[in-house]
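Quick one - inputs below.
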Amino acid sequence: MPTKRRLRAFLFVMMGVLFVASVPWYRETGDPVTLIWGLPDWVAVALGCYVGVAVLNSVAWLLSDVVDPEPGDHQP
Amino acid sequence: MTFGQMGLVALGFYLAGLVLVAEIARRARKDSTPSDHFLAARDLGVFVLFLTLYATAYSGNSLLGYPGKAYRTGFSFIMATGFMMSIIVVFHALVPTLRPVAVAHGFVTPGDWVRHRFRGESGERALTLAVGILMCVALANFLLAQLQAMGHMTGRVTDGMISYEVGIVGLAFIILFYESRGGMRAVAWTDAAQGILMLVGLAALLWWLVGTAGGLEAITDRVSEVRPTAVAVPDATVCANWFSSIALLGLGSVLYPQAIQRVFAARSGRVLSRSFAIMTFMPLTTTLVVTLIGVAAITRVNLEGIASDEVTPRLLEQWAAEGGGHTVGAILVFLGALAAIMSTADSCLLSLGSLAAGDLLGRSGQDPQTTKLGKRLAAGILLLMVPLAMWGQLTLWRLIELKMELLVQCVPAFLLAMHWSRLRAWPTFWGLCVGTGYASVMALTGVKTLGGIHVGVIGLALNVVVASLGSLALPHRESASS
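Output:
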């Protein structure tokens, strides 16, 4: 189904963005660190990104079509 | 009753439960085919499949190696939550293509895919063998790490009443017993129980750590006083290593033979999708938790000159020393750790037996004799590994790094082969040799990373270049299936 496929493609792009954003490559090593939810801010950002990936990935799996072939069907 | 005596009793009950499960699994078997023994007749439902995937993915390394790594590096080990999550994302590239072919053709081992994909090509046998050898070496490596961890953990839970050597031999025998009696059914059912034990144990340990420290903020404040670098924004090399770990672990871990065999063993494609939809949250309940445990340990234990793997046991000893319910909680976590280790070891052993019989010796996946041969080979491999485990000195983290460097070289034969019909057998074989050779030589000379990038990832890049250019140079093969 094209809509489903487009939605999954969007989810994968978003997950890619979140993975890139999770790594603090855009921060300087000596930058001051503040605490968010008891964690250093860059750790809280990474954690937020991974929670986002988990939710999007779960939706992507529920939308995925892992179809088993009918008995006797020997073509992939 | 002392801590050691309580631990011994709990261990006894736990092992008796495993033996009982093996007997029930043996009675549930339908026939003697490899499919029934190694894949539980392809009938695993959502709950068991999810828990066996979980218990297999989170090994002794997760409970012993990862807290140690977090203790050494600080908060930057949050990267582990990312790379464990990337595995479930990368599975999207594998499962929807592999599952229908595997069901249609009755695959039992990963080598069945390689044989099917490259059938009719002169390099098919060489490539199947190379992939099989690489996977067996990686699995044996992983099994060795679990055996060592089993020995250490048995000694801890019984407070030295059972020695390291007796722990290894005794638990190896129990694993061999329930795995050969009940096959994948016994492994999956015990994995389910072991997974629950691990989850409960970790949650209890973190609850105690955070509670006694006065909250997460207090822990972070104390860590920043004791070791400011553990809280500081990581430098460029660490960031490069973070990206590299996501690539290495994400790509390599989907090719664990035991994970691929669970894709074959699911009752249906729908069951598989649902299991992965739940699995994607597990890094948050497991890897994140062990990372926080390791960071919190910075303020509680001193591991100067001691192996990193000691972090979790040292914390548990402190917890147990508080007495009463704390002692019981610590024993539960020790058992949870032991369960995690055993569940990974049993899955490795089951896969090793099937790979050695099917992919290395070329036996049929439909023949009941292959099941017998697989069981004997598994027993032989375990007999060889036990003395090695008694002698070995490597820490768990180093072992898993070496394993992934090798396993990731199989990526072109699976992921690239599934999505690019022009890929040919001989170039894939030579690519695998080049990537493996590079990663092995670098690792053996002590070079683990270059600018933060793992040598296995660089080896994979070389591997893909050789496989792709070689395939493009050869005439297009119309009959190649993708």
